[in-house]
Every structure is written in structure tokens, then in C-alpha cells.
Amino acid sequence: MTKPKQSGDFLGHRFSPEIIAYAVWAYHRFPMSLRDVEDLLAARGIIVSYETIRAWVANFGSQYAKVIRRDRPKVADKWHLDEVVLPTNGKKYWLWRAVDSNGDVLDILVQSRRNKRTADRFFRKLFKTFGAPRVVVTDKLRSYGAALKDLALGIEHRSHKRLNNRSEGSHRPTRRREKCMGRFKSPRQAQQFLSVHDQIQNVFRHRRHRRHTLSAACYRQSRADAHWIWDDITRVLKAA
């Protein structure tokens, strides 16, 4: 069999960019293990080890996420922030996540503390990337208000448990991944994986969550649009 000609970031890889892209997509799109993806490819006549798939996910996942961040549409001016316990290697860490009112995950931060200093660090990270929003919605954790007060940017802060369902719902894909992967081995691993996973999920998340509000034809078109975006990123990486 003729070895496919590679280019760009895929140069030097035995398998075609389309196969690599499919493996990365399947791993991040569904709560599947590396061995599950290996079996999925094998069912299509593509024999590749789960260790090779692990390398693809580690290498190309971050590259896909980078392009998604670069080309993302302008974020909404209303943000929802929340934090949730993330057990890691037998220790208690906190996963901080910011979501805009469109449901897109903006960024995450894994830290051992749940205090004003961490809230301030997360806000500064977000503002450096996206600028300041008009409104920030959080739970009742006082650290958010204290950090925003010190930043003195005139941002409206709404603190109410029931107002923050959008951000709380964004944690569900993480919990599904935890069940599949087991606990994260380190906060660094969690930070690296979730930073990529959330961005890839952004491309496909709306198509799944809005399904009950769309006609079958509209849903299929929306799903096709998401896959077109994914394929376009693959073309960008091939040309890099």
C-alpha cells in the first residue's frame, strides 16, 4: 500500500491526517478510552495501537484547541463562573471554569485553593485573553466579589446560586471523562487535558444541547457545520 503523502504538522506520520483527526475527534467528542478508539478504528480496518492514539491525542489535541481559540467568534459580554471539586491523585483540587452566555467555555484553571487569590488569578487570566465582560455571574463564594472589587473595572457582579446553572452544567462532560479515564494523576495533567477538551467540545456542544429545540433537518445541518469546522481545522494544520 502506498504511504499517504503528508504535509504540515502531519509530516512524518504513517497514517493520513484524516485518520489522525478522526481519532482525536472521537476521543474528545465521546467519553471513550484510548482502547475504545483503537477498537473503533479497527472496526474500519485501521490497525493502530492505543499508545499511538495517545501520542496523537497529546500532540494534535493541543493544536486543534489552539486553532479553535484563535478563530473563535467574539465572546458574549455576560460570563458565568463556577468551581467544582476535582479529586486528583488522592488530593482535593478545585476546577475553576468560565463560560459565556452562549455556552462556550472560555477557560479553566485547576488549583488547590478556593480563595480570593485564586479568583483574582483566574479573572486576570480571562481578562488578558478576552477583555472585561459587562456582567459576571457566580455562586455565593465571596472570593469572586472580593477579587472583582480589587480589580475595580466596573463589572456588574451577580451572585446567586440559581443564576449559575449554565456554568454548573459545563462540568458534566468533565465528570463523564473522569468515569472513563479514572481520576487525573496530577493537577498539571488535568489542566492540560481539560484546556484542550473544553475547546474541542465547544465546536460540538451546542449541536447536542439544542437538539430538542431544532427540527431534524436543522439539527443535521448544525451537526454538518460542526464537522465542516473540524475538517477545516485539519486542512489548516495540513497546510501549516
TrEMBL record:
<dbReference type="InterPro" id="IPR052183">
    <property type="entry name" value="IS_Transposase"/>
</dbReference>
<dbReference type="GO" id="GO:0003677">
    <property type="term" value="F:DNA binding"/>
</dbReference>
<keyword id="KW-0238">DNA-binding</keyword>
<protein>
    <submittedName>
        <fullName>IS6-family transposase</fullName>
    </submittedName>
</protein>
<feature type="domain" description="DDE">
    <location>
        <begin position="78"/>
        <end position="206"/>
    </location>
</feature>
<keyword id="KW-0815">Transposition</keyword>
<dbReference type="InterPro" id="IPR036397">
    <property type="entry name" value="RNaseH_sf"/>
</dbReference>
<keyword id="KW-0233">DNA recombination</keyword>
<dbReference type="Pfam" id="PF13610">
    <property type="entry name" value="DDE_Tnp_IS240"/>
</dbReference>
<dbReference type="GO" id="GO:0032196">
    <property type="term" value="P:transposition"/>
</dbReference>
<dbReference type="InterPro" id="IPR012337">
    <property type="entry name" value="RNaseH-like_sf"/>
</dbReference>
<dbReference type="InterPro" id="IPR032874">
    <property type="entry name" value="DDE_dom"/>
</dbReference>
<dbReference type="InterPro" id="IPR047930">
    <property type="entry name" value="Transpos_IS6"/>
</dbReference>
<comment type="function">
    <text>Involved in the transposition of the insertion sequence.</text>
</comment>
<dbReference type="GO" id="GO:0006310">
    <property type="term" value="P:DNA recombination"/>
</dbReference>
